[in-house]
Structure formats: structure tokens, C-alpha cells
Amino acid sequence: RPSWSYRIFKTSIASPLLADRGKTENTEHKIAISLRAMELQSFLSWLLGLSVVFLSSVPGVLALPGSFSEAHGPDWSKIHSRFASRSQKNSTQDKYLIGTGKADITGPAADIILTGYANLEQVGGGIRQRLFSRAFIIGDVKNPEDRIVYVVLDNLVGDTAIRFGVLDALKGMGSPYSVYGQNNVALAAAHSHSAPGGWNNYLVPQIPCLGFTKESYQPIVDGAVLSIKR
């Protein structure tokens, strides 16, 4: 049996304003499908709400602290006190070695396609603002060799080509830099679409930049390494 809303639609559709009966039947069919979809959505929403209510009443499943007896769950007071004592301990004893460095990675600024928009007409015509690499080093006070370095580049992405180049350069700088490797060097980027292209390790980003460009790649690697060194 059609609902009242369906009957209203049906009455309006069957009016003399619609001369083409084929279009009328087609529109009527679409409306009926839409109404059935709305009814199904309403039923699923009701079923989801019922499921949440049911699961919330089961100890340990979607239940908030205090919604069931302590006999069926953790002792939240002990957990809170444990985190509070740990926080107080960290505020007085946890210290880190921090290092920061910055270096230029601008590279070629004219007659080179910029990266990011895949637009062959986006060709560099000069320098408006220089690009940099910023390195942040965090180390353990008691064991300085236990450290990580996080490098942020003013370009599109922290590509693997740049990462491999940085790791190779650090490896060739001798024992003071042997602490850096695959597990503690991270490269990220500011995601600039106005930096020179042609340094990516993958084919798809290379296509709009007309291939790999050593003149664009090397300044990024050298600048990233210099920022770590500084």
C-alpha cells in the first residue's frame, strides 16, 4: 500500500500538465524508488541506533567509564593516578637534545617546469622567494646516538629519490654521521606547487616535468644534508 506522500506525488504527476504519459510513468517510477530508498535508510538508521544501545549495555563494549560496575571493568581511579604520577615524573626528568638547521635548496629558477600541477605552461621565470630545508634533530640525553632527524623541504613531497640521495651523502661523510640511516631519517615537505620539478623518483610525476633533471635534484639533496649538518 503506497504511503500518503507517494499518493500526493502520484496525484500531481497524473495531472493534465504532463502530456507525455511515458515521461509520467518514468518519473513516477523514479519517485517510488527514491521513497523506497528513504524507507530503507530510515530502517538502517534505526537498526544502527538499536545496535549502539545494545552494545553500550554490554560491559567492556562501547561502554564509557562508570556505565557499568567496576567488577566488570578496570579500576579507572588507579589508571588516572598512574598517568598523573607519570606526568609529574616526565615534567622533571625527561629531557632531550634538540638540534635545528636550515639550508637553501632553491635550485634552478628559470626555464624549468615547476612541479605539482602537471602543467607544461607552468615554467619558472625567476625567484620570488628562496626555498629551504629545515632539519630538526631529537636525541636522548644519556645516549646521544639514540636520535631521529626530521627534515622538512620547501617543495612538493619528501620523495624517495631525495631520501636515498640524503642517506648516501650522510653515509659518505664519515663516522660522525654514521648514526643516521634508514630507521631514523624522515623527509617531509611543505607541499609547495611553486618549486622546480624534475627530481621525482617515479615516472608519473616526471612526465609533466619532461623527465629527470639533475640540476633540480642535486640542490635539494645538498641542502637537506647541509641542514642536518648545521
UniProtKB/TrEMBL annotation:
<protein>
    <recommendedName>
        <fullName>Neutral ceramidase</fullName>
    </recommendedName>
</protein>
<dbReference type="GO" id="GO:0046512">
    <property type="term" value="P:sphingosine biosynthetic process"/>
</dbReference>
<dbReference type="Pfam" id="PF04734">
    <property type="entry name" value="Ceramidase_alk"/>
</dbReference>
<dbReference type="InterPro" id="IPR006823">
    <property type="entry name" value="Ceramidase_alk"/>
</dbReference>
<keyword id="KW-0472">Membrane</keyword>
<feature type="transmembrane region" description="Helical">
    <location>
        <begin position="43"/>
        <end position="64"/>
    </location>
</feature>
<dbReference type="GO" id="GO:0016020">
    <property type="term" value="C:membrane"/>
</dbReference>
<feature type="binding site">
    <location>
        <position position="191"/>
    </location>
    <ligand>
        <name>Zn(2+)</name>
    </ligand>
</feature>
<dbReference type="GO" id="GO:0042759">
    <property type="term" value="P:long-chain fatty acid biosynthetic process"/>
</dbReference>
<feature type="domain" description="Neutral/alkaline non-lysosomal ceramidase N-terminal">
    <location>
        <begin position="96"/>
        <end position="230"/>
    </location>
</feature>
<dbReference type="GO" id="GO:0046872">
    <property type="term" value="F:metal ion binding"/>
</dbReference>
<keyword id="KW-1133">Transmembrane helix</keyword>
<dbReference type="GO" id="GO:0046514">
    <property type="term" value="P:ceramide catabolic process"/>
</dbReference>
<dbReference type="GO" id="GO:0017040">
    <property type="term" value="F:N-acylsphingosine amidohydrolase activity"/>
</dbReference>
<dbReference type="InterPro" id="IPR031329">
    <property type="entry name" value="NEUT/ALK_ceramidase_N"/>
</dbReference>
<keyword id="KW-0862">Zinc</keyword>
<keyword id="KW-0812">Transmembrane</keyword>
<dbReference type="GO" id="GO:0005576">
    <property type="term" value="C:extracellular region"/>
</dbReference>
<keyword id="KW-0479">Metal-binding</keyword>
